[in-house]
Structure prediction request, 274 residues.
Amino acid sequence: MPVTHLPGNTGADDVAAAVGGEGAVVVDALAPPALLDRIEMELRPYLDTTGTGPDDFSGTCTRRTGSLVARSPACRELVMHPLALGTSRILLGHATNFQLHLTQAIAIGPGETAQPIHRDQWAFDFFPFPVGYEVQCNTIWALTDFTEENGATRVVLGSHTKPDGQAFGPDDTEPALMERGSVLFYSGSVYHGGGANRSDATRIGLNITYNVAWLRQEENQYLSVPREVAETLPLDLLRLMGYERGAYALGYIDDLRDPIEAVRPGAGSTGFAR
Ligand SMILES: O=C(O)CCC(=O)C(=O)O
Ligand SMILES: [Fe+2]
Prediction:
């Protein structure tokens, strides 16, 4: 059974239901070509100078370029995309709030082998979260077409409800085939991995993920986005980046102050609960 595709005008309820049902879904043609062109232009110098990964998991023919909020103003539109935020709000609705977890352009080069099949939530020191308690809502925006040959992400549909320790192989996976501008939504619990690139061109996806705000972020936004850039960003993006308390009290500064005060004095809310 191939990965389900939904049209770009699908609402967050239906996207969240599809991710809840199968662990992953593709929404077609969501990012306008002009936005992708801007992103490509802004990221090109960084993509060209990022080194390849140190091991098979990161990919020795794969370049992972982060700090997308700082490096690409156009990427901020994907980070703040209403469908990504709306879907995260539903999937992670059991937690008080959620935050930006990581931003990473993943450029899988020719000759790359398939990434080991994994759950993204294993980043949390392999803690066995209860089935159904999702801690991440993930997107991979296709900056190039994703094909079977060039390393489309491979997903084990339905695996989000299985316990840890499953030994899934390539035959258990389906490729998330999609065109430039489409986006793969997947949970932190679904087994998946980047595909092998047997083509002669690089496959680029923008992995932008969100997690419940009581867990640590994978990409440290406070240090990845320089303070002088942070000071220019809109409040809602700053809050998503973690300039907000997680749940009741996590991440306050000094005398129980809202962390937004560090970059926007006077913008903080009083008290803890939202
Ligand atoms: O690039 C991809 O298709 C998936 C990468 C991935 O799953 C990861 O790095 O965790
Ligand atoms: Fe992954």
